[in-house]
Design brief:
Helix content is 41%, strand content 25%. By secondary structure, it is α/β, with parallel strands linked by helices. The chain folds into 2 domains: 117 residues, Rossmann fold; 124 residues, Hypothetical Protein Tm841, Chain: A,domain 3 (2-Layer Sandwich). The protein has a 6-stranded mixed β-sheet with strand order 10-9-8-13-11-12, with helices on both faces. It has a 4-stranded parallel β-sheet with strand order 2-1-6-7, with helices on both faces. Strands 4-3-5 form a 3-stranded antiparallel β-sheet, covered by helices on one side. Strand 6, helix 4 and strand 7 form a beta-alpha-beta unit. Helix 3 crosses helix 4 and helix 5 packs antiparallel against helix 6. The chain starts with a strand and ends in an 8-residue tail after the last strand.
């Protein structure tokens, strides 16, 4: 029996092969659309979501919701079959109630559970989960696994550019004027999630300029350190692969992934999203 099992939710955007390789348990978030409920990444896959969004003509978008307390209780019980304790890592509590539900469920099981609000999202959270799982595989105890996740979550950076603000607007996440301005001026906004909330970082006028700014921000923050990076996309694989090649050429990547933006996140941003997430290793003498 291992010391620690690592659990996350489906918004973490981890590639399936990494989930399987590192024995990470994923609790799906939920989508509700036209009277049906779908488990994120199980009943609704990225390609299907973006295809349906592009074809939608009735103006109705999917709604999203957290897993239930029961979903987490079952996940913790499953984890307890092979581990002495659990570390459960989730996207920012300012973006979702998932952390609060996971925390409530932790009081209902016999296995010790530590629940972490990583204060970021998508692969920003995914990297914290991945490093926690690697620490657990190396034999770390629950406090060491939790601290490793905290370290990576603090170092993680996430920037995405959108094709349009209309999905965020229709979901009630940006003012109407911002959506109109984005359409008229062909703005490709750059958003980030840092220390909790989603924030508007820049408003470049073209996609090409937006991608250049994503790379420039990486360069400004990485400063030649070794880096662990991921390129995320919402149904724009060709653009994602081009961005991945650029990242590989410019930076000292210790690992570099391309991953689909999960349906439960893409329901709010729409198809066309392109982004990068990363964490950079410390130089000697730096604080983690």
């Amino acid at each position: 029996m291992r010391k620690v099992a690592v659990i996350t939710d489906s918004s973490a955007d981890l590639p399936p092969e990494l989930i399987a390789r590192h024995h990470i348990i994923v609790v799906p978030l939920l989508l509700h659309w036209d009277g049906h409920e779908y488990r994120d990444g199980v009943d609704m896959m990225p390609g299907e979501l973006y295809r349906r969004l592009r074809l939608a003509t009735n103006g109705r978008l999917p709604k999203t919701s957290t897993p239930s307390v029961g979903d987490f209780v079952r996940a913790y019980a499953r984890a307890a079959q092979g581990a002495q304790a659990v570390v459960s890592i989730h996207l920012s509590s300012e973006l979702s109630g998932t952390y609060r539900v996971a925390h409530a469920a932790s009081d209902l099981v016999d296995v010790p559970v530590q629940v972490l609000d990583c204060r970021t999202a998508a692969m920003g959270c995914g990297f914290a989960v991945l490093e926690a799982a690697r620490a657990a595989e190396a034999g770390a105890d629950v406090e060491q696994v939790l601290e490793r996740a905290r370290q990576i979550a603090r170092r993680a950076r996430l920037y995405v550019t959108l094709d349009t603000l209309s999905y965020l607007h229709r979901g009630g996440h940006v003012p109407a004027i911002a959506s109109v301005a984005g359409s008229l001026l062909r703005i490709c906004p750059i958003l980030t999630v840092e220390n909790g909330p989603a924030q508007l970082a820049e408003l470049p006028r073209t996609r090409r300029r937006a991608v250049a700014r994503l790379l420039a921000r990486m360069d400004e923050e990485i400063k030649a350190r070794p880096v662990h990076a991921a390129v995320m996309h919402a149904d724009v694989l060709d653009e994602a692969e081009a961005l991945r090649r650029e990242v590989a050429a410019r930076f000292d990547c210790r690992e570099l992934f391309t991953t689909d933006f999960t349906p439960v996140m893409g329901a709010h941003t729409g198809p066309g999203l392109l982004g990068v997430a990363w964490w950079s290793e410390e130089r000697r003498g730096e604080q983690p």
